[in-house]
Amino acid sequence: MNTHLNWWAQRTQRLIFLWPFRDRRLYLWAALVGLVVAVLITLVWLAGRYEASQVQATLERDTGDAVNDIRSKLMRDVQELQALHANFTSTSAWGPAAIGLLREHRDWLRVEWRDAQWRERAAADSPLRAPSFFKTPRSNAQNEIVQACQRARRSSGPAYSSSYFLPQVDGLGMEVMDLCLPTVDTGGRVEFAVITYSLQEIMTEHLGQTFGRRNEVSIIEPDGTRLAIIGNHGRGVRIFSAQQLLDLPGLTLLLRMEGRRGAPDLFPNVLTALVTVMSIALVSVLVLLVKDSRRRLKAERDLADALAFRKAMEDSLVTGLRARDLQGRITYVNPAFCQMVGFEPAELLGQKTPMPYWPPEMVGEYQQRLAIRLAGNTPPREGYESVFVHKDGTRISVLIIEAPLINVLGKQTGWMSAFLDISEQRRVEEMSRTSQERLQASARLATVGEMASLLSHELNQPLAAIASYAAGSLNLLRDQQVHTAAQTLVDLNLALRRIAEQAGRAGKIINSVHDFVRRRDQDRESVGPKALIDAIMPLVNLQARKLQIKVITKLDDKLHTVWCDRTMVEQVLLNLARNGMQAMDGPDCADRHLLIQVRRAASNENKQWVEFSVADLGCGISEEVARQLFTPFFTTKPEGMGLGLSLCRTVIEQHGGHLAFDAHTPRGTVFRFTLPVPDLRETH
Ligand code: ADP
Q1: Distance between CA 253 and CA 245 in Å, rounded?
Q2: In this structure, how many other beta carbons lie within 10 angstroms of the beta carbon of residue 251?
Q3: Does the pTM of the predicted model rise above 0.85?
Q4: Which residue's CA is the closest to the ligand 1 atom numbered 21?
Q5: In Å, how far from its chain's centre is CA 652?
Q6: How many other C-beta atoms are found inside a 10 Å radius of the C-beta of residue 643?
């Protein structure tokens, strides 16, 4: 009961103890999943941002390149213009050379040669298009040219005018700007060479192929006015834009490049996609792991419960359990076993023979028994008894039930033994045996007491005979003159012999009773049935003579000996014979015969039996008496003790036999009991 309560307490404690851990584990898992999701989102976002910044950087770089392209192109133009003026000093030669240059440069609209007062000395329009200043007179732009050339003269280098709109014949127009380059004529006077550029053409010619394909490139003024534009920024969700200063002498413009991209794409490139896929895989694995760990946790819990239950069971068992390996070493002991032998598990585990709880004098025998067991001999299923010594020195009787220990693979790994402490049982048995013996002894004494009267009656005869012989002898001696001396001697001799005979008879009678009371052979032995009958006959005859009963004994030929406690069985026979004779002691009982018979009985379970029967022709047993016949202290006789039959049955059953009674024909009762024929296996 106590152990059971303990087990429950432990279990509840364990559950209470585990709760916070379960919650904590749940939080940990949630945190882990949250972290992975956060990392995943951050990763995708960073990858998107990286991609966008890459696009932006490319655009910035392209814008820078475009600005550089335009700048270097304008530088080259300046050089070509210088070369034109250096090589062609006469206006007649200058004209065709200028036309030649205009043909090469689509973005040049017009080339002019102006003197120090900005008057036009020579001019050539681009042959590739209609003259640009057809609709608007050139003088309209005089102001811009003058400003540019004044700056050019001041800086002695090329200078650009601010841009201005030039309407065209087709109704459209274009933004243009002028480049003014100061030159020196042969006479050392300052003159100017002017190129009118179409901003749109500059872009188309020099950026269209390279940057205009994917972007929209425009030249804008610092105030945001768009002057020229090329390209198309295509389709896309997000517009990236970059702009750079196009700083020219006298003119500051901005070059803006705009590109539309598919950003933010969720998976901008393979790497991000790969990382994302891997992260998804990671999350999936995580989920699987969570599931698996939950399953494991459940299995673990079930296992722990099962283990706790098994442990509780083992701990609360009163049966000692011990496991040994194939070498005879102890591999497991339960608390009940430790309690039984008084040793701690640590003192027993791994212990080899001789075991500390073996009685020292039995070590040899137990070693032998162990060797037989280890050789593979299966022990008896019903177990066997043994004696152990408790650590405190007390002896304990144990019943050992052993079985091979078979593992899950069906292989024998050792021996498992269960121990039952039967010391108390043995003590009780011993007590009941001694009290039984005492009872039997008193019953025997009672029988003897009963027989004392018979004895006195029986002894009367020899004693009377002795007395009369003695008296006769004395008479002979007194009357010596009547007989001759020789005759007297003969008579005396006879009388004395008779006296001796009668004294011997009386002695025998007393001895037979003495023997019966004194003899107490504890052990069973092999006894012939005749010897048993002969032993009780003198006592039976005592009573028989008194009651005038004829005792007949009948024994089969070639009877087996019986395996019994001789004194006990003799007492049983005597009891039955006495009961039979007493039953015939009535006035209505004319035929007074007591038949004591011994014969072979039917054998069973490979055991042979001998049957004894005592039959009388007495009053018989009524049904009421029959019901209580074997009840101790039941008697119908005034001087009876009522112990005889109950003891008889106990004795016979202790021998493995059976006592029964039946009605006897024509009248009376027959009592039968069986005794075993000695078994060779038991006797040796
Ligand atoms: P006790 O002889 O001291 O009475 P027993 O146990 O031997 O005790 O017998 C119990 C009773 O059984 C007897 O009192 C008697 O009535 C009855 N009994 C025993 N044997 C016979 C028999 N052979 N015939 C009739 N009655 C018997």
Answers
A1: 6
A2: 18
A3: no
A4: 579
A5: 55
A6: 19
